[in-house]
């Protein structure tokens, strides 16, 4: 069946070929991130790994506001408008985001003591590097969004997945082994320095594609684009917060060691989402175009294939992680075997991602950003409430339970809403 589809439909062929490229690069990035975390765990222990995770949460969450959802909106802009007009929009978004990101970073560094107190850590350097990374990651992600809209999926995948860990890993090895520089903050120094190089490289890539394009003046207004992008920002922000809120609350209520164990288990469980993320990378612009052109046949076909492939691939990864979880955790060190049951719980929770299809992509690419925003907001509120109730008495198990419940909530409710609007069942039920 798949061969027949590939032979007859160029859209399906691109879905698999470009989605496959995204997957390969993402796996490469995961391995780089895995080795980076492994080296930190082996050389510095779970506590430093936890401090690095907290620093990561600062810059990942802190970059959400200055991005304004521009990175997602640029996918639609570059895929559905003339490139001459899209180029002007791109330049405006870069300027706005950069100056706001710089301001946020300045405030964070200025009040570093306040944030150290919140996260219960006594090493301000992790906070400083976290905030210093905000402008770098903001610009990198906006450039990646432009590349995605231009259908440069390999580049998009590298900048959003593999790049920062590849650069960080190389620098960590240079600092630790070659330069014999082994202070506890070296991992986060390597990461931030690598992120600077990645940002420069992302500009080079975008410029190499659009430099010969002459900007076409439009009626573009920043405030209008911000309004259009805001729901995209809120929904994507809430999804990222859903992934990092547990780490933040663990940092507040528990030890850095527990944060480190949870971070490793969560990193392994993230493997389950690889197939959906890979296909979403090329699916998003195609869905946007099919919807705009009212090509329901293509719209339905792309979603149907994505749902089936995602289910079987994700199920295979879940079984692999469940069976070999102790073996995988032992690579990081004996103390990480404490996360065996935690990883099992996170894998079970990921079943909702395996069953449900590209819920977020359908909402965001069909003009229902606000619906998706409200849906994820509900899940975020549930997550925070459960974190407040469960983390103090149950530690990282409480964090995992709140993550599982909130993820299942927005996935399954999203499937129902999409069925109601489009009469498409965005979930794979094997025995239906």
Automatic annotation (TrEMBL):
Keywords for this protein: Cell membrane, Membrane, Transmembrane, Transmembrane helix
Record-annotated membrane-spanning stretches: 21-44, 50-68, 89-111, 123-146, 158-179, 185-204, 225-244, 264-284, 305-324, 336-363, 375-394, 400-419
Transmembrane helix keyword on record: yes
Record carries keyword Cell membrane: yes
Topology with respect to the bilayer: Multi-pass membrane protein
Domain of life: Bacteria
Record localization: Cell membrane
PANTHER family, alphabetized: O-ANTIGEN TRANSPORTER-RELATED, PST FAMILY PREDICTED COLANIC ACID TRANSPORTER
Name of the protein: MATE family efflux transporter
């Amino acid at each position: 069946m798949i061969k027949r589809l590939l032979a007859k439909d160029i859209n399906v062929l691109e879905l698999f070929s470009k989605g496959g490229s995204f997957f390969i690069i993402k796996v490469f990035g995961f391995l780089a991130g895995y080795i980076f975390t492994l080296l930190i765990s082996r050389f510095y222990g779970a506590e430093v790994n936890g401090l690095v995770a907290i620093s990561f949460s600062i810059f990942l969450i802190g970059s959400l506001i200055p991005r304004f959802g521009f990175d997602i909106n640029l996918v639609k802009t570059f895929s559905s408008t003339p490139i001459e007009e899209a180029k002007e929009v791109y330049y405006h978004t870069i300027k706005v985001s950069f100056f706001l990101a710089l301001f946020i970073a300045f405030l964070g560094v200025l009040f570093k003591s306040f944030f150290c107190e919140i996260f219960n850590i006594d090493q301000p350097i992790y906070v400083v590097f976290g905030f210093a990374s905000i402008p770098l990651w903001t610009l990198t992600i906006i450039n990646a969004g432009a590349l995605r809209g231009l259908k440069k999926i390999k580049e998009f995948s590298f900048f959003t997945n593999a790049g920062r860990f590849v650069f960080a890993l190389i620098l960590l090895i240079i600092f630790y082994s070659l330069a014999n520089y082994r202070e506890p903050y070296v991992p986060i120094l390597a990461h931030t320095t690598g992120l600077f190089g990645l940002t420069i490289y992302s500009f080079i890539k975008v410029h190499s594609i659009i430099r010969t394009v002459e900007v076409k003046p439009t009626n573009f207004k920043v405030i209008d684009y911000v309004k259009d992008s805001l729901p995209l920002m809120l929904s994507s922000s809430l999804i990222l917060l859903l992934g990092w809120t547990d780490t933040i609350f663990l940092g507040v209520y528990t030890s850095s060691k527990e944060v480190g164990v949870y971070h490793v288990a969560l990193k392994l469980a993230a493997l389950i989402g690889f197939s959906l993320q890979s296909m979403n990378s090329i699916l998003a612009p195609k869905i946007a175009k099919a919807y705009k052109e009212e090509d329901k046949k293509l719209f339905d076909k792309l979603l149907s294939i994505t749902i089936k492939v995602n289910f079987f691939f994700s199920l295979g990864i879940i079984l692999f992680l469940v069976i070999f979880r102790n073996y995988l955790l032992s690579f990081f060190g004996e103390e990480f075997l404490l996360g065996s049951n935690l990883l099992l719980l996170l894998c079970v929770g990921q079943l909702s991602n395996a069953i449900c299809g590209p819920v977020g992509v359908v909402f965001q690419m069909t003009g229902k950003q606000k619906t998706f925003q409200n849906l994820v907001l509900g899940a975020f509120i549930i997550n925070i409430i459960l974190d407040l109730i469960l983390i103090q008495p149950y530690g990282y198990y409480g964090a995992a339970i709140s993550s599982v419940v909130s993820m299942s909530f927005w996935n399954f409710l999203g499937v129902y809403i999409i069925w109601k609007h489009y009469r498409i069942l965005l979930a794979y039920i094997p025995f239906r």
